[in-house]
Amino acid sequence: MLKKDFWKKKKLNNLSKEEWEALCDRCGKCCVIKLEDIDTSKIHYTNISCKLLCTKTAKCKNYISRKNIVNDCIALDYNNLELLHWMPKTCSYKLIYEGKDLPSWHYLIHGNFDKMIKKKKSVHNRVINEKKIRKKDLQDYIYDWEQ
Length: 147
What we know:
This protein has helices at 6-9, 17-23, 66-69, 92-97, 107-110, 114-118, and strands spanning 32-36, 43-49, 128-129. Helix content is 20%, strand content 10%.
């Protein structure tokens, strides 16, 4: 059982495994293909999801074994959080790490994921699985998730 406002009372590196997993808003933005501009190092998000992400629910189809299936999948933890400059601005882990609060649409604030989906803060039903796209066409799918 999670304690109310646990993320306000503990540092990220002191969260239990259950608390750490619960902090994720399950937006799915970390699971979309990202392209880096060689000249500027700017990261461009696409609306193409990892092959394991369910496009209808924005949940990983094999969360436990994802790192064994997808070579470049990164398991987020306290120790690598600062290095992952490509994480979305709205990432709960990033926000808490930076000393900010969770957004009003976060399910830990109001109790369900519906508000997040309605406010279009999730990739839920808004991405195409990478298996359906030719790799050479990825740049055609650059997408601004903050719009």
